[in-house]
Amino acid sequence: MADKKRLLIIGGAFCILAGLVLFTPLPVRAGAPQERHFRVEASSYEYAPSILQVNPGDRVILEVVAKDVVHGIYIDGYDLSVEAQPGQTERLAFVADQAGNFRLRCSVACGPLHPFMIGELRVGPNQILWRAGGLVLLAMIGSFVLFRPSSPSR
């Protein structure tokens, strides 16, 4: 009975710590603004790469290349767009001055699956990586605490 109570207390403590790791704001500061270049290839209802990660204040330069038909990119929240003809490269430059996740959508009706041609611009630190690392560390500590050999009783 004492072992069950001990496990419940330890498990509850680790659940509270896991909640803190997941939901506490991270004090991660981004470095000095940089110039970020991305070559985005648009074809067959997809962007490659489909996720662009930058820091707030970075100057972003997108080189959009349409591989098959006319494609475009519209960045929600920034109200910016660019169109590229097949085989042509068009450039779009802007400063990522708004933090958050912004959808990239094709701005040209390019076929029946056009509404599904989306990507994402992520402006800010990669918090998922840091939080996942914290949870892995917490799980390792928890496994050592819960599964350590018990000392013999006298």
Summary of the model, kept short:
This protein has 154 residues and is α+β, with helices and mostly antiparallel strands.
Can you walk me through this structure?
This protein is α+β, with helices and mostly antiparallel strands and 154 residues long. The protein folds into 2 domains: 2-25 and 130-146; 35-124, Sandwich (Immunoglobulin-like). Helices cover 27% and strands 34% of the residues. It is built from 2 helices and 9 strands. The strands form 2 sheets. Strands 3-9-8-5-6 form a 5-stranded mixed beta sheet, with no helix packed on it. Helix 1 runs antiparallel to helix 2. The longest helix is centred in the first third of the chain and has 22 residues, at 2-23. The relative contact order is 0.18.
Q: Helices, strands, pairings?
A:
Layout: H1 2-23, E1 35-43, E2 46-48, E3 51-54, E4 59-66, E5 71-75, E6 80-84, E7 89-95, E8 100-105, E9 118-123, H2 127-146
What share of residues is helical? 25-40%
Question: pLDDT below 50 for ≥5 consecutive residues: which ranges?
Answer: none
H/E element sequence = HEEEEEEEEEH
CATH architectural category of the largest domain: Sandwich
How many H/I helical runs?
2
Average pLDDT, all residues: 85
Number of strands: 9
Shape: elongated
**N-to-C CA distance:** 18 Å
- CATH class of the largest domain equals Mainly Beta
Rg computed from alpha carbons, rounded to a whole number of angstroms: 23 Å
Strand content: 25-35%
CATH topology of the largest domain: Immunoglobulin-like
List keywords for this structure.
34% strand, 2 domains, single chain, four-stranded mixed β-sheet, 2 helices, five-stranded mixed β-sheet, Immunoglobulin-like
